[in-house]
Amino acid sequence: MLYRRLGTSGLQLSALSFGAWITFGRQVGRAQARELLALAHDRGVNFFDNAETYNNGVAEQVMGDVLADLRFPRDSYCVSSKVFFGAHDKPLPTQRGLSRKHVMEACHQALQRLRVDYLDLYFCHRPDPDTPIEETVAAMDTLVRQGKVLYWGTSEWPAEAIHEAHRIARENHLYAPVMEQPQYNLLHRERVEVEYAPLYEAYGMGTTIWSPLASGLLSGKYNDGVPADSRLAQPGFEGLREDVLGHGDERLGKVRALQPSAAELGTSLAQLAIAWCLLNPHVSTVMLGASRREQLAQNLDALELLPRLDAAVAQRIRQVVEAG
Known about the structure:
By secondary structure, this protein is α/β, with parallel strands linked by helices. The chain is 41% helix and 13% strand.
């Protein structure tokens, strides 16, 4: 396993990490989750990502039960949660958002579900237009000083709001956000590569990127339609299906055009897409999601490809995705 610092902090995360979004508590039960977490930890993964809203807290309960059952040394892994959407289908106003009340209570609830004494990473899952940033920064600072959170950050915040959070923290001697969790892949690059560019040097922020395979699109599994056993074919994922496939043939065309590059390297398209994300030095870790042990093992093997992705190969890949 390769390890990278979380921005300029002292925390070193595995370059590939494992997240529970969509899968845990839905496609993945406790027995499967145990196999997946055991495999990941055995392969050197030290960061497991979660959120209050993933299956309304059930994903955290599953992960917490499995972590307790596996008895990994607590100092051998990091675990995260995220706060904003709440853990209910129809949350009340005090059960969502980034108010001090919900930030504090959501953290305590996540600790209970994950069965840990502290969160290594805690993310503000989206910006909250109804709560002053000052209030959220102060609440996160309180949790850090209480020892319930070690590092806090944001997820899919606009750069302007992150700048504001740092200004508030600096002027009031509060703990500032250390990391951002944005979507980043070959088909979704603008925010990480352009909008966030000033943040890396100004504040030393790292990124824990999600959806390196664009919800499976970059694995090539949807090149000839939607398989019946795939995530996008499952009830309840109609919105995700529209987001992934609702762009006509343009994105699918780019995915198909990437296949020769993968074949030339003797690798899978999924492994190529995952390894490509790590070419960005501002990516601290790439979060993987998998519902099968074999799938996770193959994706973890993407690290073996990284030394072979030289400048010439990277340029060819870039030309494919930028064409048209």
